[in-house]
Amino acid sequence: MAYEDACFDHAGDGILAAQFLARMQSMAFVRDDLRGIVLDAAAAMPTESRLRTVVDEVVGWVDQGRSWTDIRTLVMERHGNDDFTDVRPNTAWVVTGLLCGTDFSWRILITNNCGEDCDSSTASVGALLGILDPASIDHKWLAPIGRDLVLNDGVVDLDHPTTLDGFTDLVVDLAQRLDEQIGPDPAQVAAEADAFDPDEHAFTIKQASGTPTGSSGPAVTSAACHAPARPAPNSTWSRPPSVGGGTGCRPASGTTGC
In a designed cystine with 238, which of 98, 109, 192, 255 is the match (CB 3.0 to 4.6 A)? Predict the structure, then answer.
């Protein structure tokens, strides 16, 4: 599922990062050893990927007793660039916070203070720690949020629980009902993931009026509308100009990954 979601607007290490985080969070439901979770989640990444490299480097530096500030300096020297959303440094901050911190607050603060795309990296750390031990979250982080489930004004005609607790119960109940109906089968899930065909997710677009001929063009299926095939681990991508707030990526030579 992490692959299918990420491949819509990411590629290369961008997809591997989503899978890495998903694996860690999945393990957190049944394990409590952070270092082991990080190592086992990273072990599923291709050894030649730059994302695997930076995760292995951070784990090694933590084992050497380096401080989180030293680790940040080393990561930026080796992997830093002018793209603050690059998944390699930002995934490094996730691992740094998890392994250098000693409690919930310290871990999210380390990750946040590493900077870059820190809203995403800090949220990833907080989500994982919340799965491991909800009671570890200090009240000072929960108090400003409260327990109410507040939806955007644009979300209408949706019958939903009024509290976060109620929403959590709803998700847990859904998972239990799905297990009863189809039963968890990891082997089948893995096989289906490997057989994912991006062409099955293509959609058709129609040219708008105002073409050079002054008329609407025929309906066409654009390659840009296909979820990309599984890329090579070291694919390089660049971010195109934003269109309507989009953050999709496109291939380019000599550029950093998205």
Answer: 255
Looking at the structure, tell me whether residues 105 and 161 fall in a common domain: no
- How many residues are listed for the chain in this entry? 258
Alpha-helical segments (H) within the chain: 2-6, 13-28, 34-43, 50-63, 68-79, 87-100, 104-113, 118-132, 139-142, 164-182, 186-194
pLDDT digits (tens, 9 = 90+) for 161-207: 999 999 989 988 988 888 777 765 666 666 666 666 667 766 665 55
Q: Which residues contact 94 (CB under 8 A, 6 or more apart)?
A: 21, 111, 121, 124, 125
Q: Quick check: 138 pLDDT over 90? A: yes
- CA of 113: how far to CAs of 35, 60, 64, 96, in Å? 21, 21, 21, 11
User: HSE (CB half, 13 Å, CA atoms) of 5?
Assistant: 7
Instruction: Count the Cβ atoms, other than its own, within 10 Å of residue 116.
Output: 22
176 domain residue, yes or no: yes
* Residue 190 shares a structural domain with residue 222: no
- What is the extent of the structural domain holding 205? 201-227
> Same structural domain for residues 92 and 213?
no
Domain count, the chain: 3
pLDDT of residue 69: 96
**Is the residue at 247 inside a domain?**
no
Q: Are both 118 and 71 inside the same structural domain? A: yes
Distance CA 66, CA 153 (A): 46
Q: Two tokens at 64?
A: 């050497």
Q: Compute the average pLDDT of residues 205-217.
A: 46
Give the predicted TM-score (pTM) of the model: 0.66
Based on the domain organization, do 94 and 205 belong to the same domain?
no
